[in-house]
Every structure is written in structure tokens, then in C-alpha cells.
Design goal:
Distance between the termini: 37 Å
Shape: globular
Radius of gyration: 21 Å
Oligomer: single chain
Bound molecules: S-adenosylmethionine
Number of strands: 9
Strand content: 5-15%
Length: 349
């Protein structure tokens, strides 16, 4: 899977345990699906998942991991990926924009991306094969990129992995019910159906996902947009907004979302470094029902550890906070929190 800020990779086990503790859960809505790691894990456990995210790269990732029926598509997808992986490089928009004018990838790998992406565009593939091909290409490019995992900037000197040759691999598809995938603003999505569980994992600060992952957005859309700045971001990054990235709007946006979503239970991820305080979020959630909270300690992103030496190896600062706490809130909209949550260490109201 791609490197992604805010991915709940390390919280998947806790989220599965919380879901399993809730009675009669069959349908789950993941309103901010990102890498679809959580949705994929639910699918594997047999839940019927609806994944939503308003960025198009996330839509294709969710199609691949939540939507695709593995047994039906694995074999044709293997043939397709072998065919695409054999294509020689053919430099085009991607190479010029992201390897020459900027330095996210080595030009030899950019040329392979161009060739493969043009081939996908010319093939009129059925949606599951298109999803597998696009995600395979994104993941292959991610393995040879020269960034710290954000596309706001590239490294001054090439990352060692950037010299490797780009190679397509089969995404790790899972067996489970084929889910639904949407690409809507979360608030709009909240009104589209009702579910046993709705999972909310919104952005919690000013960092905008479209801007952080603009290369993936351009790769999947293949609209070859005008770009700007040293990072060569898509021009639409200037107008892209999410109420959840705004200090002024986030409180009311969360409240509107929590009020609108139709589910028997809400599961909400919360990080203690965001714009909304724990007490504020508690107050918003309690409007829907009794709320339990699970606290999970985990190691912070690596930048907190490495950003303290200058290029000559001299210590220039103190180590930042190395651990932070992720909170998982569980709200019983029908009024009854199951006792099983206590065994998981949840604080009950
Ligand atoms: C914290 S990340 C979710 C990470 C995800 N749970 C995972 O494990 O990868 C937040 C996601 O919300 C999406 N997003 C931001 N604003 C949104 C909005 N208004 N509507 C829908 N999705 C939004 C972003 O594209 C991003 O993928």
C-alpha cells in the first residue's frame, strides 16, 4: 500500500476488535477511506463495506481493495499486469512534470509510468481491471519515489530506492463481499444510506490530502493538468477545499456530519494533535448517544526522531514528542453500549 499520512494501518486490529464487540453488525460505512486499509480488513472479516473519499486516487484504491471480487479478477489481472510491466519506457507528461521539472522519480521510472498509464488509458478496461492496474502502478511508483511520503516536496538527494527499477506487482486483494465505493464529500455521502456502523476518520488539521498526494491524483485522472510551484502541484490544488482542514469550519462540519450520518453505531478516530479538542468531540458525539473511548498509544511519525541533526551530523535540536495517542470513540446511537467494549479497555460513560 502507498505511504499515507493518517493511514490507520496500526489501528486496524483495534478497529476490528471494536466492530466485533458490537452486536448484529453487517454493513459498515467508511466515510474517509484514504488507503482503504480499514475497509479491506472489514471486507476480509465478511462485512459489507461502503467506502467513500472525495479524492479520486482514494476512489481507485477503494475500488481495488473493497470493490473487486478477488476470485473473479485475479487471473485476468495477472495477465494484464504482466503485459503492462513488459512495456518499454516512453517519456511523456509524467516524466517531464515529475522527473525533469521536479524530481519525485528517476526519469527511467517516469518513462515506464508514462508508457503504462497511456496503455491503460487506451484499453477500455472493465472497472475492476482498471482499478487493479491503477493501484498496481501507484504502488510501484510509490516504491521508487524520492519523498518522505508526502508530495509537497521531494528529497534534495535521491532516496536509495529511487534508483531501483519500477516493477508492477499484484495488489494484495482480499476475499470477502464486494463493497460499494463512492467519491463524495463526506457530508453528502452521509445522507446516501443507513448502516450498522459508520466509521469517521477525517483530516484533523490544515494539511490537505489533495495537495499532499497530487501526483497520485494526476496519475489516476490522467488529465495532464497545468501545474505550479516547486512541487509541481495540480492547478486545482489552489481551489481544493475540505471543511475538515479548516480551523474555523471543522467543529461545525463534524457536528453536521455526526448529526446527519445514519448508523446504529459510530466509530470515530481522533488524534490529539488536531484542531478539535477531545472535550469538544465528546460533546458533539454525545448528542447521538452514550460514548465510550479507547486510548491507543503509538509511535509518532519518524520526522519527530530524525529532524534534529544538521547535514554534518551535529545535533541541533531536541527530540520532539515520540509517542502520541490515538483515540477511538464508539457511540451507540440506539442508546446501548455493549459490555464487550470494557474487555477491550474502553472507558465507558
Ligand atoms: C485521515 S485520512 C483517512 C485515512 C484512512 N482511514 C486510512 O486508513 O488510510 C482522511 C481522508 O479524508 C479524505 N477527505 C478529506 N476531506 C474530505 C471530505 N470533505 N469528504 C470526503 N473525504 C474527505 C482525504 O482524502 C483522506 O483520504
Amino acid at each position: 500500500m502507498i505511504k499515507y499520512i493518517g493511514s490507520k494501518r496500526k489501528l486496524v486490529d483495534q478497529l476490528l476488535a471494536v466492530t466485533a464487540a458490537l452486536p448484529d453488525v453487517h454493513t459498515v460505512l467508511d466515510l474517509f477511506s484514504g488507503t482503504a486499509r480499514v475497509g479491506r480488513a472489514w471486507k476480509e472479516r465478511g462485512y459489507l463495506v461502503t467506502a467513500n473519499d472525495h479524492n479520486e486516487y482514494a476512489y481507485w484504491i477503494a475500488q481495488c481493495y473493497v470493490g473487486v471480487e478477488r476470485d473473479r479478477w485475479l487471473s485476468p489481472a495477472s495477465e494484464l499486469l504482466a503485459q503492462l510491466d513488459a512495456l518499454p519506457g516512453a517519456p511523456g507528461y509524467f516524466t517531464k512534470t515529475f522527473c525533469e521539472d521536479a524530481r519525485y522519480f528517476q526519469p527511467k521510472n517516469g518513462a515506464r509510468v508514462d508508457a503504462i498509464r497511456e496503455a491503460i488509458a487506451g484499453m477500455s478496461l472493465p472497472l475492476p481491471l482498471q482499478a487493479i492496474a491503477l493501484v498496481s502502478l501507484m504502488e510501484a511508483a510509490d516504491r521508487v519515489d524520492s519523498t518522505v511520503g508526502l508530495q509537497m516536496a521531494y528529497l534534495k538527494s535521491w532516496a536509495a530506492r529511487a534508483h531501483n527499477d519500477l516493477q508492477l506487482r499484484m495488489p494484495e486483494l482480499v476475499v470477502g463481499p464486494s463493497g460499494n465505493v463512492l467519491m463524495l464529500d463526506a457530508l453528502q455521502c452521509a445522507g446516501t444510506g443507513s448502516y450498522d456502523v459508520a466509521y469517521l476518520d477525517p483530516p484533523y488539521n490544515q494539511h490537505k490530502y489533495r495537495n499532499n498526494y497530487h501526483v497520485w491524483e494526476s496519475l489516476v485522472r490522467w488529465d495532464k493538468p497545468e501545474v505550479y510551484g516547486i512541487a509541481n502541484k495540480r492547478i486545482d490544488c489552489k481551489s481544493y477545499t475540505s471543511a475538515f482542514n479548516s480551523r474555523v469550519q471543522i467543529h461545525d462540519a463534524l457536528q453536521a456530519l455526526v448529526d446527519a450520518v445514519r448508523a446504529r453505531y459510530l466509530i470515530v478516530s481522533f488524534n490529539d494533535e488536531g484542531y478539535v479538542s477531545e472535550a469538544q468531540l465528546q460533546a458533539i458525539l454525545q448528542r447521538r448517544g452514550p460514548t465510550a473511548v479507547l486510548r491507543v498509544d503509538y509511535q509518532r511519525y519518524v520526522g519527530a526522531k530524525i529532524g534534529i541533526y544538521n547535514p554534518s551530523g551535529v545535533k541541533t535540536g531536541t527530540v520532539g514528542k515520540l509517542r502520541n495517542q490515538e483515540l477511538i470513540f464508539v457511540v451507540a446511537c440506539d442508546g446501548q453500549l455493549p459490555a464487550g467494549l470494557v474487555e477491550l479497555g474502553a472507558e465507558m460513560p
